């Protein structure tokens, strides 16, 4: 039902970071008082926010809580890089990162609500600016985009830039470097900014308006969100003391529907109300009641025991409470947006600073403890025998962000994002998983399905053609990898192979010079030719490294976005160098085989040559594995 309040007076407070008096008065500092539904919301938020700023390196935060018809908003600390400007919930802009997607999916549900697009329509039929690859017979639909199941590889390039002058129109961003389709749609969840960016362009193409114009007219204006904007660098975010923008902010979204919104706590309180009050705020309707219900219901889950996806929002079960939520983060900002539909409650928290995530989470957890309490006295689960197919479960699992990426970005996702999961079955039947410094224990509750021994968490093993291939930690998917695919193994292989390969590249010319100096006997002509070929193969590796470094420096000196943010179109030519080197190495393999068959070289020469060729082959296999050759196997 719509709110009976025209608009609650918004509270704006600036909390003294070092005081801590409110915390002590509440009893929360010592943990002697658990938050309850009877605790005053303003007091609870004051205590948590004051504690968060006192204990973490965060400069400021803003909070919005909607509880039925009551709206609570407040600000604490100072504005971003403006220590003399207190945070005001109705004025101070924050970057909310991926929570921008909530606005995008809300706008997408509007065009569904108006009959312009059906959730199961092929988006390719409605897109004008982008052509979706026809890799599979199954079409990608809006439902797939909203649940992050379109089957695209993850695309990092094109997501952001460090200079607002490089931000592109959305149509250009989504139509450049269109990610490959690596699996049929609807099969597996894989979070990507591209899905939301493509949805933003779908909204633009269907409505005939720019994405930000559509959202301004159809969401911001009717909800009174007058301070919200998708502009890349709004003046309200940076200090007004003449500081250059580039000295303050280093991240600008190049896919604004996914991560480009700047907003205030008060504005987000309006959005919370719209979602909790059947699409109506202050008499202004942005969605029908049925459309709101549709946004909040489950649209996808890989297994009935796993919290899945609503329409653009993530499910989370906490105790007996179902939450639909989204978090977000960009450098120095962290955000939480959550709806508890059955409770009529919503919350929004965003903080800035080097420990923004910890500060934000401190406040969010206090609110979750109030509205979605968890009974921590539950019994520890024990295994009931050895899991079925226990012998197939052990091993290392790497995120599909890396395993299923067919572009050169695979190495970025493999080396610098996330950590693999190691799984093994203990003697008593418990499944043990290790990820980084975290170790967890699980018990099987049905074939290939495991529950955490203490927490509310589920693991599911996925099989393909009767073989266990993936581990699903909630929605996140990890693919089982072989021993030779482990980074530690590949690291040692790289070092050893590099040393051996260099003994040929450096040793052969040095030996030739020494023979000339001493007047020694030259090797057979066939050996000389073979060494030139093998040397060219090894040199291709070295030239590739030098070319990559040179291109990186050149791109920066040209004032362009970085190679990671947006490589120039001609960057793919860099991968031609090692491809020619790989061809030369293939020829060197043939020379090595002929040398052993004919035995026309000395044994020592044949052994050394073979070792160099094997080392070069290993290095080129590693380049191929990480998609760093011009010809890629996927």
From TrEMBL:
Q: Organism, per UniProt?
A: Halorubrum lipolyticum DSM 21995
- Source domain of life is Archaea
Query: Which PROSITE patterns does the record match to this protein?
Result: TAT
Transmembrane portions of the chain: 491-511, 532-555, 575-597, 609-626
Task: Name all Beta-lactamase-related domain ranges.
Answer: 46-360
UniProt protein name: Penicillin-binding protein, beta-lactamase class C
Transmembrane among keywords: yes
Locations of Basic and acidic residues compositional bias?
A: 381-395
